Amino acid sequence: MNSESSANVEKLGFETQAIHAGQDPDPVTGAVVPPIYQTSTYKQDGIGGTRGGYEYSRTANPTRTALETCLAALENGARAFAFASGMAAEDCLIRTLCRPGDRVIIPGDAYGGTFRLFDKVLKAWGITHAPVMQTDLEAVARAAAAQRPRIIWAETPTNPLLSIVDIRALAELAHGHGALLVVDNTFASPYLQRPLDLGADIVVHSTTKYLGGHSDVVGGAIVIKDPGHAADLAFNQNATGAVAGPFDAWLTLRGVKTLAVRMDRHCGNAARVARALADHPAVTSVLYPGLPGHPGHEIARSQMRDFGGMVSFRLAGGERQAVEVCARTTLFTLGESLGGVESLIEHPARMTHASVAGSPLEVPPDLVRLSVGIEDPDDLLADLSQALA
Ligand SMILES: Cc1ncc(COP(=O)(O)O)c(C=O)c1O
Question: Rounded to two decimals, what is the model's pTM?
C-alpha cells in the first residue's frame, strides 16, 4: 500500500485495515512487514533532534507504533496504547482516569484478574469498586445513582459466564451519571464488536487472546475515542513504563493480520460445540450467546457480528465431573488463557477465577470453560464426546 492509500486507511474494510493500517512498507528498505526495531535508544541529530520523534523505546518504538496505529483503526478509535499485558493496560488506564476517592462499578461476573486488581491493589490506594451484574440495567442505574462512579467498567461477553451487556444502553446510563464507560473487548475482539461505535468511551484488551491469536505472546491495549485522553495516557504509559516490547508488538501485529479469518472459524466451531453440548445428557446448561435460549442472545445479535469462540457449560455431576472432564480431553489442552488457534479447556473455579473464591464474584464449581480453536470441528466434537462419556 502506498502512502496515499494508507492515508485513507480508515475508509477501508476491516480485513484490509488489519493487514495495512500502520504497516506501510519500510521507507528505507521496502520491507513489506514492519521491522522489529529491537533498540532501546535512537541517534539524535543534535540535542533534541530526533528522527520522527523517537528518543527512547519506553516512550515510543516504531514497531509498537505500528501495532498501536493498527489497533486504533480496528476499534475505530482516536488512538491506541500497547502494554506488556492486559493487566498492565487496565492498571495504567484506571490510574490515569481515577484519583483516590473515586469509585468504579465493575461487572458482577468480571474476569478474576480485573477483580483482583480492584480488590487487592487499587483499593489500598483509595479507588473503590462495586460489583453489579450489568445484565440488570436497573441495578446498574441504582448503583450509579448511589455511588456516582468515575467509571463503569464492563465486559461483554463476560469471562467465564458469557453474559451479554447492552453496550448502547450502558453507555447512555454511564453518561447520564457523568461516568465513562470502559469496555473490556477481549472476548469479542474488534472484528466481532466495536464498543466505541456503540457509545463506549474506552476499550481495553488482553491482546494475549484473539488479537495475538497464537498463544505465543502476552500483551494488552487501551483504545480511546476522545483524543482528549491521549496526552495523559501517553504520559502515564511512559511514566509507569509497562510497555509492549518490540518483539511482542511485532508478534501481536502478525496475529492481528489474520484476525477476521480466525474469528470466523472460531465462531463456526464454537457454535457447533455449543449445540452438541446442549444435546448432551451430562450437561445441565450451556452458556453461549449464539444459542437462541441464551438470555443475551438478541442483544448479542444486535451488537456483535457473530457470537465468539468461548463456550462454558455446567455438569450434572457437579465439581467432580467438571474436574474429570478437564482431565480427560486430549485435543482440548488443559490450560489457562484463550483465543489461540488451539482449543483449551479449564476449570474456572480452580484456575482462572481462583482469585474470586469467597467473593460475590465466585464462579460455580460445576462450570467448565472452553476456548474453541480452529481445528477440524469433527475432531473437537469427538474429543468432548469421549471426555463426557
Ligand atoms: C477478559 C480479560 N481481560 C483482561 C485479561 C488480562 O489480560 P493479561 O492476561 O494479558 O494480563 C484477561 C486475561 O485472561 C481476560 O480474560
Answer: 0.96
For residue 205, report the distance from its CA to the centre of ligand 1, in Å: 7
For β-strands 333-334 and 344-346, DSSP reports them as parallel
- Using the atom order of ligand 1, give the atom closest to the CA of residue 207: 10
Strands 220-224 and 202-206, by their bridges, are antiparallel
| Alpha-carbon gap, residue 220 to 8, rounded angstroms | 26
Q: How far is CA 354 from the centre of its chain?
A: 20
| Angle in degrees, CA 267, 346, 157, rounded to 5 | 45
Q: Please report the atom of ligand 1 found closest to the CA of residue 336.
A: 14
Q: Where are the beta strands (DSSP E) in 103-143?
A: 103-107, 128-132
pLDDT, one tens digit per residue, over 96-132 is: 999 999 999 999 999 999 999 999 999 999 999 999 9
Per-residue pLDDT tens over the stretch 295-325: 999 999 999 999 999 999 999 999 999 999 9
Ligand 1 site residues, Cβ closer than 6 angstroms: 85-87, 111, 113-114, 155, 159, 184, 186-187, 206, 208, 218, 220
> What is the bridge-based pairing of β-strands 128-132 and 103-107?
parallel
Q: Which three cell numbers stand for residue 29?
A: 528498505
- Between CA 306 and CA 312, with CA 307 as vertex, the angle to 5 degrees is 165
What is the rounded average pLDDT for all residues in the chain?
96
